[in-house]
Amino acid sequence: MQSGQIMVGAHKGIYVIKLVGDVRLNLCASFDDFIDSMFTHEDFTDVVFDLHGTQGVDSTTLGLMAKIAIRALERGCQKPLALSADAGIRHLLDAMGFDALIEVSDERRDYGAETRPLQCTAPDECAAREKVLEAHRVLMSMNQHNADTFRDLVHTLERGCAPVAKPSTRMH
After folding, report:
1. Which residues, 6+ apart, have CB-to-CB distance to 59 below 8 Å?
2. Could you tell me which residues are beta bridge partners of residue 22?
3. 94-99 contact pairs (CB < 8 A, 24+)
4. CB burial readout 52-81, b (16+ within 10 A) else e
5. First CA to last CA across the chain, in angstroms?
6. What are the pLDDT digits (tens) for 59-97?
């Protein structure tokens, strides 16, 4: 599989997020920063996920896609659009319950947005764990199936993030 890349662009308030290759956790800290930045723009009106070049996507990336859709809907926008003709990608979106958050189409559309590669830096271990936790909490909030699927992972990560209690140095 081709290693992943996230391409981003905007035209007339429509933000295009193109996932290319195998998109994984290592891209997600920079992707999350982009998401926060995207929602600060006054001209933001819609989001399109172009998944035509996507070979694979991990659950952390799916969680960030759900985060985008939820924030767009909360802002009063219509459901974001995901474009993919790949049966496996479409099945994954359906199985995760994305139909409640996004419209899926197999069309190819040109939104006039010139996309450029998102500059991704590898997050440190703690930042990566926080992004994974946040993304999976979003997925869990979507439906009971996702809650059941990711519950153990989230609990494990939460325990890993908890401050370790120092043993008592007091002598008895």
Report:
1. 135, 136, 139, 150
2. 3, 56
3. 95/145, 96/62, 96/66, 96/139, 96/142, 96/146, 97/142, 97/143, 97/145, 97/146, 98/62, 98/65, 98/66, 98/69, 98/142
4. bbbbbbbbbbbbbbbbbbbbbeeeeeebbb
5. 59
6. 989 999 999 999 999 999 999 999 999 999 999 999 999
pTM of structure: 0.84
Which 8-state DSSP code applies to residue 98?
A: G
The secondary structure of the chain in percent helix, strand, coil, rounded to multiples of 5, reads: 45, 20, 35
Specify the amino acid at residue 127. Answer: A
Residue 154 CA from chain centroid, whole number: 16
How far apart, in whole angstroms, are the C-alpha atoms of residue 145 and residue 5?
Answer: 29
Query: What is the tens place of the pLDDT at every residue in 111-162?
Result: 888 999 988 777 677 777 888 888 899 999 999 999 999 999 898 888 876 5
Amino acid identity of residue 39, one-letter, is F
Residue 98 and residue 66 in contact, taking contact as beta carbons nearer than 8 Å: yes
Q: How far apart are CA 100 and CA 94, in angstroms?
A: 9
Q: Which letter does DSSP use for residue 121 in this model?
A: -
Burial environment of residue 144 by CB neighbours within 10 A (0 to 12, 13 to 18, 19 or more)? exposed
